Amino acid sequence: QLQLVESGGGLVHPGGSLRLSCAASGFTLGSYAIAWFRQAPGKHHEQISCTGSSGGSTSYADDSVKDRFTISTDNAKNTQYLQMSSLKPEDTATYYCAANRFWCTTWGSYDVWGQGTQVTVAS
After folding, report:
1. What number of CA atoms fall less than 13 Å from residue 22's CA on the CB side?
2. 3-state class of 90 per DSSP?
3. Phi, psi (5° rounding) for residue 63?
4. Which of 36, 122, 22 is nearest to 78 (CA)?
5. How far is 108 from 99, CA to CA, in rounded Å?
6. Which of 1, 61, 112, 123 gives 20 to 30 Å between its CA and that of 105?
7. Mean pLDDT (the chain, rounded)
8. Going by C-beta distance under 8 Å and a sequence separation of 6 or more, which residues neighbour residue 93?
């Protein structure tokens, strides 16, 4: 069974940092395109990044996160990380990772989804 499990969310003060994890099981994470999305209450989902399959590069969807968020992958742990720094209240959302067997694509076209992890940025 193909599965993604996210972890690492929580409550953080503005300006703080968090590292989210996306652990894959049942498949080799590096062989898939891996994307991160987030969705805040009452808002449309927003793509954060996508890393291409088979060692592809990572692209960030928005300049507002590009300078603060960093993607890394530990192939030995079959896990991708989303390192977030200088967090702002507007970063509050549920964060999801998703996998597509071949390429980076849109929200509805990923094959495997994590359950989501909540990030709350507040004083």
Report:
1. 31
2. helix
3. -65, -25
4. 22
5. 11
6. 1
7. 95
8. 38, 39, 40, 43, 46, 118, 119
Strand intervals (E) in the chain: 3-7, 10-12, 18-25, 33-39, 46-51, 58-60, 69-74, 79-84, 93-100, 112-113, 117-121
- Per residue in 52-104, pLDDT (tens digit) is 998 789 999 888 898 999 999 999 999 999 999 999 999 999 999 999 999 99
Please count the other Cβ atoms lying within 10 Å of the Cβ belonging to residue 72: 12
Residue whose entry in the numeric block shows the structure tokens 């495997």: 112
Which tokens is 36 given? Answer: 């991160």
pLDDT of residue 111: 94
Q: How many CB atoms neighbour CB 27 within 10 A?
A: 17
- For residue 25 the two structure tokens come to 């099981």
How far apart are alpha carbons 22 and 58 in whole angstroms? 15
